[in-house]
Amino acid sequence: MRSRILIIYTGGTIGMHRNARSGALEPFDFELLLSRVPELQQLDTHIATHQFHPPIDSSNMTPAMWTDICRCIADNYDAYDGFVVLHGTDTMAYTASALSFMLGNLTKPVVLTGSQLPIGQLRTDGKENLITAVEIASARDAAGHALVPEVGICFGGHLLRGNRTTKQSAEEFNAFESFNYPHLVDAGINITYHRHRILTPDFAQPMTPHFRLDNNVIIFSLFPGIREDVIRHIMLTPHVGAIVMRTFGCGNAPQSPWLLGALEECARGGTVIVNISQCMQGAVEMGRYDAGVHLREAGVVSGYDQTVEAAVTKLMYLLGRYPGEPERVRRLMCESLRGEVTLS
Ligand code: ASP
After folding, report:
1. Residue ranges of the chain assigned to CATH 3.40.50.1170
2. Residue 338 burial (CB count, 10 A)
3. CATH 3.40.50.40 segments of the chain
4. Rounded to the nearest whole angstrom, what is the distance from the C-alpha of residue 147 to the centroid of ligand 1?
5. Cα–Cα distance between 193 and 188 in angstroms, integer?
6. Which residue from 7, 82, 313, 325 has the fewest beta carbons nearer than 10 Å?
7. 10 lines ligand 1 (CB under 6 A)
C-alpha cells in the first residue's frame, strides 16, 4: 500500500522569497512552495498538507506552537504513516527536541526539514531535503512498521535524532550535526538506515501525546569574570523552576564560595539546576575535577551529553508533567526518555 504522508508547513527559509522592495526574505504560500517540487509526484506516496497561518520565521517559534504541532500530529496520527514538518533552521533543533518529549511511544516518523536557500532559488538545498525527508518518512519494513519511528532532522543527506541535534552552521548546506550520537540514516546513492541506532517503540501500544509544557526555565553560560549580582539576579527570578547552566569543559565551574552558595541555596529552594557543557562534543563528568565535584555537592545535576536544546525542552516537558516535584524532575533529567542522553 502507498504510504500516506502529512506535510506540515510552519515556515522558514524553504518557503520564503525575496521582497523586491526591502530585499528581505519573507514567507510565501505553501501551494506555491509545493509547485516548485514537481518531483514529489514521482514518489509512490500519497501526500497531504497542513499549513500554519501565518508561516513564520522560526526565530518566532513558541512552546504554544509546539503544542499546536503536537496536536496536529496527534489528531492526524491514525490517518497517516508519517509526518514531515517544514520548519526554519534557526530553532529546528529546539522544536525537534520538544516534539520528541511530547510524543510518547512514537511509532511513526516525524521528520523535520527546511533549507538554507529558498526553494525557488537556484542551487537551493530545499528540494533535496524535502524529497529525502518524504522518502524517509514513508519507509516501512515488511511488517508495515516505520523504519524510523522517531523525531528526526533530515538535512544535507542525513537523518539525525532530533533531540541530539544542534544547528552548527549558518552558512553551509550541512547545517546540522548530532555530535554525541551517530546518524540514523545516510542518504547517498542509496538510503542507508542504521537500524541498530534507531529507537524501537512498542508498536502494539498507542502513541501518547503530552501537551503541557512549563517554560519557567532559564539558560545561562558561565564565563571568567561572571558577576555575583548577575548570578543572584538570575537565580532569584520569580517562578523559575529550572536552570540550564552551561559550564566549562567536562562540567566545571569557578569554585568561588559565592557561586557555590548561590547554587546550593537555589537548589535547596526547589529549582532544578542542570549542568550542560559549553562544548558541543563530549559529556559532563562532575567527578573528574574538583571544580565539578563542588557543583554536585551544591545540588547541581549532571546533564551528561545532552544538547542545550534537549535539556531545556526536556525540562519544560518534565516541569509541565510533574509540577511541584523537583526531585522527580532531577532524577528524570539523568535518565534517557527518548534516546537523548548517553548513560555509560
Ligand atoms: N531565519 C530562518 C528560520 O529559521 C532561517 C532558516 O530557515 O534557515 O526561519
Report:
1. 3-209
2. 25
3. 217-333
4. 28
5. 11
6. 325
7. no
What is the CATH T-level fold of the domain 217-333, as seen in this structure? Rossmann fold (3.40.50)
Q: Identify the residue whose C-alpha is closest to ligand 1 atom 1.
A: 57
* Residue 13: active-site member: yes
To test ligand 1's pocket by mutation, which of 17, 25, 28, 90 has the most ligand atoms within 8 angstroms of CB? 90
Residue 110 phi/psi, 5-degree rounding, is -125, 105
| Residue type at position 136 | I
pLDDT tens per residue, range 12-64: 999 888 888 888 887 777 777 778 889 988 999 999 999 999 899 999 999 99
List, for residues 229-244, the tens digit of each pLDDT value. Answer: 999 999 888 899 999 9
User: On the CB side of 25, how many CA atoms lie within 13 Å of its CA?
Assistant: 18
Q: What is the pLDDT of residue 207?
A: 98
Q: With pLDDT > 70 as the criterion, what percentage of the chain qualifies?
A: 100
Structural Rg of the chain based on CA atoms: 21
Question: What is the CATH number assigned to the segment(s) 3-209?
Answer: 3.40.50.1170
Are 45 and 3 spatial neighbours (Cβ–Cβ below 8 Å)?
Answer: yes
Please report which helix (H) or strand (E) contains residue 51, including its range.
Answer: strand 45-56
